[in-house]
Automatic annotation (TrEMBL):
Pfam families: ECH_1
Name of the protein described by the UniProt record: Enoyl-CoA hydratase
Single GO MF annotation: catalytic activity
Family stated for the protein in its record: Belongs to the enoyl-CoA hydratase/isomerase family.
Domain of life: Bacteria
């Protein structure tokens, strides 16, 4: 099995477990998404694995990208001369699409916040187990940014166009209970039971025929990866337009300072 630096990978009978290990907030980068895609590919190639669980250490499932990271800010400054090619997020979306091309069911154990691209990662799974403390947020517009990680396609397909628009336009945090009512979460349990409930669901799935599972899932998710690819291509164009604006700089700064942003529309 491949050696990983940002995730732990285990097998439990017919269930694979991927644990994000970048606590407390589990910010993602290209390396993390690449490792998750690699692990899922390993599970696809392992005849013994029939379903997998995606979980995380720490208080958050995944808080998305760390816009306050000095290295990321430096890369973004360099990318302004060639925004279509230099930015790491370009490569991140390539890895994200790989996740959507995996063949076997995934259950996400969302014990805390799934924010921005972290929401996109949670939505890439077939099912989500949440708790009252879980918070789902597409907080892009509060940053002065455009949604990414394929969410403009995956979120409306999951919870309906209008609910997706509500999340996009307000950037509000949706609680575990509300997510359960919307169908964004499939199972709602106390926080200390989230991972166990996710494993239980994955084990229930793994009791079914592996050939039947792969065949049925291919039918149910037909074309999804290609739709996500098209979505991320468009999302990246819009994100590159907004990246150099004053509003984006103010949104990131205000978020870091935990205050309401003073947007100017420029």
């Amino acid at each position: 099995m491949t050696k990983y630096t940002d995730i732990g990978v285990e097998t439990h009978g017919h269930v694979g477990l991927i644990e994000i290990r970048k606590p407390p907030l589990n910010f993602f980068d290209v390396s993390l998404i690449n490792q998750i895609a690699d692990a899922l590919e390993e599970f696809d190639n392992n005849i013994e694995i029939r379903a997998s669980v995606l979980a995380a250490q720490g208080k958050a499932f995944c808080a998305g990208a760390n816009f306050g990271d000095p290295a990321r800010q430096e890369q973004e400054e360099r990318a302004k001369t060639d925004p279509a090619s230099n930015l790491p997020i370009n490569h991140l979306y390539v890895q994200a699409v790989r996740i959507f091309r995996n063949k076997k069911p995934i259950v996400a154990a969302v014990q805390g916040a799934a924010i921005g691209g972290g929401l996109g990662l949670a939505v890439s799974a077939d099912f989500r187990v949440a708790c009252p403390e879980t918070r789902f947020a597409a907080n892009f517009t509060k940053l002065g940014f455009h949604p990414g990680f394929g969410l403009t396609t995956t979120l409306p397909e999951l919870i309906g166009k209008n609910n997706a628009e509500l999340m996009f336009y307000t950037s509000r945090r949706v609680t575990g209970e509300e997510a359960y009512r919307w169908g964004l979460a499939n199972v709602l349990v106390p926080q200390d039971q989230v991972r166990a409930a996710a494993m239980k669901l994955a084990q229930e799935i793994a009791e079914c025929s592996p050939l039947g599972l792969v065949s049925t899932r291919a039918t149910m998710r037909a074309g999804l990866a290609d739709r996500v690819l098209a979505a991320t291509n468009h999302e990246l164009v819009e994100q590159n337009k907004l990246r150099s604006t004053e509003d984006f700089k103010e949104g990131v700064k205000a978020t870091a300072e935990r205050r309401v942003a003073n947007f100017k529309g420029r």
